[in-house]
Design a protein that fits this description.
The chain has 384 residues and is of the alpha+beta class. It has a domain at 4-39 and 51-64 and 101-171 and 265-346: FAD/NAD(P)-binding domain (3-Layer(bba) Sandwich). 35% of the residues lie in helices and 28% in strands. It is built from ten helices and 20 strands. The protein has helices spanning 11-22, 48-56, 87-90, 101-114, 222-229, 233-244, 292-309, 318-346, 351-366, 368-380, and strands spanning 4-7, 27-31, 43-47, 67-69, 71-76, 82-86, 96-100, 118-121, 125-129, 135-139, 144-147, 150-152, 172-187, 194-199, 205-210, 213-221, 251-254, 258-266, 275-277, 283-284. Strands 5, 6, 13, 14, 15, 16, 17, 18 and 20 form a nine-stranded mixed sheet that branches. The chain has a five-stranded parallel sheet with strand order 8-2-1-12-19, with helices on one face. The protein has a three-stranded antiparallel sheet with strand order 3-7-4. A hairpin with a 5-residue loop joins strand 9 (125-129) and strand 10. Bound molecules: flavin-adenine dinucleotide (FAD). The site of flavin-adenine dinucleotide has 38 residues, from helix 1, strand 2, strand 3 and helix 7.
Length: 384
């Protein structure tokens, strides 16, 4: 049987290849970047459901730098109401986990090597040709690989610059005109595994416990984000204190700042002609509720599970890809809608909404079933 071709060995492509292998389906992965230069300084927030996926693949226990989030404090600046979510209340060890992208990338690379999965680093896919019985993948080194299915996990336009496959025009797109400033920060008071999500009219800001400090994701208008990121350290720390308040005491130190633009883009899984798009290649979300990366891992897991349940000759068929697209719709659209709702309702200064938000937070705090609903959506997606 020819192998399923996977474009991109980012977390989503790597998890897909490992899960396919576990299902008895061989994969051949092309990764544009060389093996030793992958991963950057971004921080990922993993939901509890993603931990379960990584556990089933035997990857979880190899991760060293994972920080559990056991409590989340949600508030809005200058307004009524706040809500607290806790792992104890939900009966889980943690609501989520924080870890460096580079570490996950390194551990997944090792797992791919150990599983003897064919991965070619430094080879980009230039073009994909769909077909009725097979798809052809044109590699940058001139080879043409043929397989029953090509899984595009290239991170889409939000990921890296080389796109495997002229990305389809998004079916839905929203530019929030916001950018995120991200960096590591140290606070006077230790984090105690508590995360903070603070909504402000300029955009949400989050502090995620990461090792012995915090990872900061501070969203603002694009121009303001550039200005904030360029501030000298002392001014940056003061501005952060004014923005976030003093729940963790003073901010003592900030690492190098990076910014990235925020938008919502839904291209969809395409799922036809023996090609399917997963992870950021299919959808890019605002990071407010930490949904995007986790939806991508579920894409990879569900696709591989379905391939395992499909007779070998039917892998990549129109029927299999239609079943995949159907199966993923509720989770993906639910995640997009939930995220978009949070950004649009909380990122403004309209008076009545300000009070409604306060009431919403009070209700979340006071009404356990609502709290459970929100926490489970964040942990498991639509199937929570
Ligand atoms: C700048 C930035 C910052 C982010 N920060 C956060 C954050 O703080 N927290 C968070 O939870 N999420 C964050 N995200 C989102 C998160 O990174 C993504 O959800 C996650 O990386 C998606 O994984 P992926 O495997 O789909 O794509 P990626 O991680 O982008 O991986 C795609 C892989 O495909 C490879 N590739 C691309 N084109 C080709 C080609 N033509 N041929 C072969 N290989 C190719 C790339 O080299 C890469 O290794 C951020 C995203 C960006 C762009």
């Amino acid at each position: 049987m020819s192998r399923v071709l996977v474009v991109g060995a980012g977390p989503v492509g790597a998890v897909c290849a490992l899960a396919l292998q576990q299902q008895g389906v061989a994969a051949h992965v092309l990764e544009a970047q060389p093996a030793d230069t992958r991963g950057d300084s971004r921080t990922l927030a993993l939901a509890h459901g993603s931990r379960l996926i990584l556990e089933r693949l035997g990857v979880w226990d190899r991760l060293q730098g994972v920080t559990p989030i056991t409590r989340i404090h949600v508030s809005q600046r200058g307004g009524l109401g706040m809500a607290r979510l806790s792992a104890d209340e939900m009966g889980v060890p943690a609501l989520g986990y924080v870890l460096p992208y580079a570490e996950l990338a390194a551990v997944l690379k090792q797992a791919l090597d150990d599983a003897d999965i064919l991965v070619e680093y430094g080879v980009a896919a230039n073009r994909i040709e769909s077909g009725a019985d097979a798809a052809s993948l044109h590699a940058a080194d001139g080879r043409v690989l043929v397989g029953p299915l090509v899984v595009v996990a290239d991170g889409g336009r939000g990921g890296h610059s080389q796109s495997a496959h002229a990305a389809p025009k998004p079916r839905f797109e929203r530019d929030y005109d916001q950018a995120a400033v991200v960096c590591d920060v140290a606070t006077e008071v230790p984090h105690g595994n508590q995360a903070f999500e603070r909504f402000t009219p300029e955009g949400p800001a989050a502090l995620l416990p990461k090792e012995d400090g915090y990872a900061l994701v501070w969203t603002a208008s694009r121009a303001e984000a550039q200005r904030i990121a360029a501030l000298p350290d002392a001014e940056f720390l003061d501005a952060l204190y004014r923005h976030f308040g003093g729940r963790r005491g003073r901010f003592l130190h900030a690492g190098p700042r990076k910014t990235f633009p925020l938008r919502l883009s839904y291209a969809g899984s395409e799922a036809g002609g023996r090609v399917v798009r997963i992870g950021n290649a299919a959808q890019t979300l605002h990071p407010v509720a930490g949904q995007g990366f986790n939806i991508g891992l579920r894409d990879a897991w569900e696709l591989a599970s379905l391939a395992g349940d499909t007779p070998t000759g039917e892998i990549g068929s129109a029927a299999m890809l239609a079943a995949y697209a159907r199966g993923r719709r509720a989770d993906v659209i639910g995640g997009l809608g939930f995220t978009d709702f949070l950004v649009r309702v909380f990122s403004n200064d309209v008076g009545p909404l300000h009070h409604a938000r306060g009431l919403g937070l009070l209700a979340l705090e006071a009404f356990p079933p609502l709290k459970t609903f929100v926490a489970r959506r964040m942990m498991f997606g639509a199937r929570g």
